[in-house]
Automatic annotation (TrEMBL):
<dbReference type="InterPro" id="IPR013785">
    <property type="entry name" value="Aldolase_TIM"/>
</dbReference>
<dbReference type="GO" id="GO:0006397">
    <property type="term" value="P:mRNA processing"/>
</dbReference>
<dbReference type="Pfam" id="PF01207">
    <property type="entry name" value="Dus"/>
</dbReference>
<keyword id="KW-0507">mRNA processing</keyword>
<protein>
    <submittedName>
        <fullName>tRNA/mRNA dihydrouridine synthase Dus2</fullName>
    </submittedName>
</protein>
<dbReference type="GO" id="GO:0005737">
    <property type="term" value="C:cytoplasm"/>
</dbReference>
<feature type="domain" description="DUS-like FMN-binding">
    <location>
        <begin position="12"/>
        <end position="325"/>
    </location>
</feature>
<keyword id="KW-0285">Flavoprotein</keyword>
<keyword id="KW-0819">tRNA processing</keyword>
<dbReference type="GO" id="GO:0017150">
    <property type="term" value="F:tRNA dihydrouridine synthase activity"/>
</dbReference>
<dbReference type="InterPro" id="IPR018517">
    <property type="entry name" value="tRNA_hU_synthase_CS"/>
</dbReference>
<dbReference type="InterPro" id="IPR035587">
    <property type="entry name" value="DUS-like_FMN-bd"/>
</dbReference>
<keyword id="KW-0288">FMN</keyword>
<keyword id="KW-0560">Oxidoreductase</keyword>
<dbReference type="InterPro" id="IPR052582">
    <property type="entry name" value="tRNA-DUS-like"/>
</dbReference>
<dbReference type="GO" id="GO:0050660">
    <property type="term" value="F:flavin adenine dinucleotide binding"/>
</dbReference>
Length: 486
C-alpha cells in the first residue's frame, strides 16, 4: 500500500463506537486527510477463533468477522485506501504482531494505543498502562516494526499521553523514536487528567524538536476544534498533523474548510452513509442520536431513540420532513458550477479534453471550475500545464490528489468518472452528486482518437463523437436529472 505521509494532516482521532466506517467516510468526505479506526484489542482478533477476512461485494468493503457468529469487527472501504490507520490495543509483542498481521494489508498504518486511561485497559497492561512499563511498550513497537511494518510495508505509530514531568515525557519520546516507528501522536494530557481539563501544550515545542531530530512524524491531539484550529496549530508548533476527537464526535463535518454543517444536515448525511455501507444498526442509532441532540424536534429525537430498525429510523426522519423540507442537503447547482473528471489515467484524459471545443462547451454549461483527479499512480509532471488554455474561457483548472478527492467530490456539481473506479462512484453517488460514468474501453478510444487527430490536426474527428456526444448531451441535461449513467 505504500508508507503513509503524515505531513500536514488533519485527522480523525481514534474513538471506540464513534470511529466506525460511516463516521470515517464522512470525515474523509468533509476533508479529513487521515482517519484512525476505533481501538480494537489484539485478543478480539486472535483470541479464540481467528478473525476472518471476507470480501463483501454487496457494500464493496472488506469485512473482518469473528466466527462463529460472524459479527463484523471492522469494515474497511476502498475509499480509505492509503488513509486509514488501524488502532490496536495490546500488552504483548506476540499478540500485537499476530493481530496486526491480520489487517496489515488492508490498512495504511497500525497505531498502538498507549493512552487509554480506562480501568479495563490499564488493568490489563494496555493503553496508558504501557506508559508505566516502557520496556514492554518499546518491545511491542519494535516487534510491530520488524514483523509487520517492514514486511507488509505499513506504517507503525503510537499514541501516548504526557507523563508527569517534561523530563520523563522527553525521555520516553526519545526511546520511542529509536524503535523504527514512523509517527507519534501526543495527547497533551497526563493519564489522570480528564478531557474537561484543558490540554497542556506547555513544552510541546521540545517534543516536536525531539521527534524532528529523529525523523519521526509528530501529531498532536487534545482540544483541537476543527479545520481552522488544526491548521493554526500545525503552523504554530511546526507539527506534522493533528487528531480531532470530541469535536468530530459532536459534528464530524468540523473537517470542512468552509465550516461545519448544521447538525440537522449532518444527521441526514450520516443516516444515508450508514445505510449505504450497511452499518450495524445499534452503532448507527448510537452515533445518530448523538448528532441529533438539540438539533431536532423532541418528538423526532424520541422516535429515533425508540427505533428498533433502519425503517423506524427513516420514519423518524420522515416525521421531521413533515415539518421542514430536509432535501436541501442535495444542493441545487448554482450559477457557477464545478465538474470533476476522475479516471485511472487522468493525465491522458486531460490531454484529450484540452481542446477549444471542450473548453467552449464547458463554459457554455456555466462550468467555472474543472477538477481533474490525479491518481497516486500518476506523477504530477505528467500533467501538462493547461491552466491558461482553460482560463481564457473563464474556467479554473485544478488537479486533485487522493488526499483531497472526497472533499473535491463534495465541491463538484457533476462527476464524470470511470465505471471501474468503484470508490469514486460510491462517494459521488452517496453524496448525491450527478454522475456520468464511462468504461475504460470507451475512454481508451477517445485517447487514441485524440492522438491520431492531434497528428492530423483535426480534433475532434468523427470517431470521438461517441464520447463527446454523450458527455455534452448529459452535461447539458444535468440540471434536471438526478443521476446520469452512460
Ligand atoms: C467517544 C470516545 C472514544 C475514544 N476512543 C479512543 C480509542 O479508541 N483510542 C484512543 O487512543 N483514544 C480514544 N479516545 C480519546 C481520543 O482519541 C482523544 O485522545 C481525546 O478525546 C482527546 O482529544 P479531544 O480533546 O480532541 O477530544 C476516545 C475519546 C472519545 C471521546
Amino acid at each position: 500500500m505504500g508508507l503513509l505521509n503524515y505531513s500536514n494532516k488533519i485527522c480523525l482521532a481514534p474513538m471506540v463506537r464513534i470511529g466506525e466506517l460511516p463516521t470515517r467516510l464522512l470525515a474523509l468526505r468533509y476533508g479529513a486527510n487521515l482517519v484512525w479506526g476505533p481501538e480494537i484489542v489484539d485478543k478480539a482478533l486472535v483470541g479464540g477463533t481467528l478473525v476472518q477476512r471476507i470480501v463483501n461485494d454487496r457494500v464493496n468493503c472488506i469485512d473482518f468477522v469473528k466466527p462463529p457468529t460472524n459479527k463484523v469487527l471492522f469494515r474497511v472501504h476502498p475509499l480509505e485506501a492509503n488513509r486509514l490507520v488501524f488502532q490496536l490495543g495490546s500488552a504483548s509483542p506476540d499478540l500485537a504482531v499476530q493481530a496486526a498481521k491480520l489487517v496489515a494489508d488492508d490498512v495504511a498504518g497500525i497505531d498502538l494505543n498507549c493512552g487509554c486511561p480506562k480501568h479495563f485497559s490499564v488493568h490489563a497492561g494496555m493503553g496508558a498502562g504501557l506508559l508505566k512499563e516502557p520496556d514492554r511498550l518499546i518491545s511491542i513497537l519494535r516487534a510491530l516494526v520488524k514483523e509487520v511494518g517492514v514486511p507488509h510495508n505499513v506504517s507503525i505509530s503510537c499514541k501516548i499521553r504526557l507523563l508527569e514531568t517534561k523530563e520523563k515525557t522527553l525521555a520516553l519520546v526519545e526511546r520511542l523514536c529509536s524503535t523504527g516507528i514512523r509517527a507519534i501522536t501526543i495527547h497533551c494530557r497526563t493519564t489522570p487528567m480528564r478531557n474537561t481539563e484543558p490540554a497542556n501544550r506547555g513544552y510541546l515545542h521540545d517534543i516536536v524538536d525531539l521527534c524532528k531530530k529523529h525523523n519521526v512524524a509528530i501529531l498532536v491531539n487534545g482540544d483541537v476544534s476543527g479545520y481552522e484550529d488544526g491548521k493554526k496549530l500545525i503552523e504554530q508548533y511546526k507539527l506534522d498533523g493533528v487528531l480531532i476527537a470530541r469535536a468530530a464526535e459532536k459534528n464530524v463535518s468540523c473537517f470542512r474548510s468552509e465550516g461545519p454543517l448544521s447538525n440537522r444536515n449532518l444527521a441526514l448525511d450520516y443516516l444515508k452513509m450508514a445505510l449505504e455501507v450497511e452499518n450495524n444498526f445499534g452503532n448507527t442509532k448510537y452515533c445518530l442520536t448523538q448528532i441529533m441532540q438539540g438539533a431536532f424536534r423532541k418528538d423526532v429525537r424520541q422516535a429515533a431513540q425508540c427505533a428498533k430498525s433502519y425503517d423506524e429510523l427513516k420514519n423518524a426522519f420522515a416525521l421531521e420532513q413533515k415539518h421542514s423540507d430536509a432535501s436541501g442537503i442535495v444542493s441545487a447547482p448554482g450559477h457557477e458550477k464545478s465538474i470533476m473528471f476522475a479516471f485511472e489515467n487522468s493525465s491522458k484524459l486531460l490531454k484529450a479534453l484540452s481542446n477549444e471545443i471542450t473548453a467552449k462547451q464547458l463554459a457554455a454549461s456555466s462550468f467555472t471550475k474543472l477538477i481533474v483527479y490525479k491518481p497516486d499512480s500518476e506523477k504530477i509532471e505528467d500533467y501538462p500545464d493547461y491552466n491558461e488554455k482553460f482560463k481564457s474561457h473563464g474556467i479554473d483548472l485544478m488537479i486533485a490528489s487522493t488526499d483531497d478527492l472526497a472533499s473535491k467530490i463534495g465541491q463538484s456539481n457533476l462527476i464524470v468518472c470511470s465505471k471501474e473506479e468503484h470508490s469514486i462512484s460510491f462517494e459521488a453517488l452517496s453524496t448525491h452528486k450527478q454522475i456520468l460514468q464511462f468504461s475504460s474501453t470507451e475512454l481508451e478510444s477517445l485517447y487514441n482518437t485524440q492522438e491520431e487527430s492531434n497528428r492530423a490536426n483535426d480534433f475532434p474527428n468523427a470517431q470521438a463523437d461517441f464520447f463527446y456526444d454523450i458527455l455534452f448531451k448529459k452535461i447539458k441535461g444535468f440540471n434536471t436529472k438526478k443521476e446520469v449513467t452512460a
